[in-house]
């Protein structure tokens, strides 16, 4: 009898390919990375679902009483079980303000990283692919900006925007200004990295073939070259997310960030710092601890991603 030929197996799905990849193997073999990913995901989900899981709405005046101010954490003498981590000078629940404050910090962090990535990658592609005067102008601007600290660039842009908008209108556009100021202080890393990668990729056969068949430079840059230089960009974006969150917290701590009526983690730390030496340590310590844990977890993920995407370390 003739044997019945076996039917060809269906190709594995995208999810199956992810779980069979070297990246997933490297991820699950690193306990520190797994813990960092779990912590980061837990904090992000806590911020997203803050209205559902926060015990109180700290920004609704109808639910705030000044008589509840300066309550210590619930496990200390004088604490109230309604306020697990205590209250601040306005009677707001510290746990609730942390959850709502993380929403602002993460929103500004993600938006500024995306903005910096779009600007930096675009300028890096133009500089590396076109070369000549375009390359010289973009790289000289990048060199000049590298001589200034990122926080100084952000303060400068923030101050100019505050002066142009005025004190009353500034509060309405403060989040946009923070995203622009932080994003414009971080674009250089993307541009220099992408430019170096493009200079390597531009002489490869697939780019030369694309030129021979008459594809436009924009098509070659964004459709063919860009996918091959995204690895380093993702690593920089992951690490810059933690830096962006810390920069936003620094600006808010200095009083040039979001207003106290809608505070981020940095604003909460600044508010609590006024009462640190009078004994109400919990007002600043818990937001500061949350900020440190969030930044550390994201940084550890960035370090792992950098090593996992480096073929020399495999």
Automatic annotation (TrEMBL):
Domain ABC transmembrane type-1, chain residue ranges per copy: 102-302
Gene3D superfamilies for the chain: MetI-like (1.10.3720.10)
PROSITE patterns, per the entry: ABC_TM1 (PS50928)
BP-aspect Gene Ontology terms: transmembrane transport
CDD domains listed in its UniProt record: TM_PBP2 (cd06261)
Keyword vocabulary terms for this entry: Cell membrane, Membrane, Transmembrane, Transmembrane helix, Transport
Record bears the keyword Transmembrane: yes
Cellular component terms per the entry's GO annotation: plasma membrane
Transmembrane stretches, start-end: 32-54, 106-130, 142-161, 173-190, 225-246, 281-305
Membrane topology, from the record: Multi-pass membrane protein
Location(s), subcellular: Cell membrane
Family: Belongs to the binding-protein-dependent transport system permease family.
Name assigned to this protein: ABC transporter permease
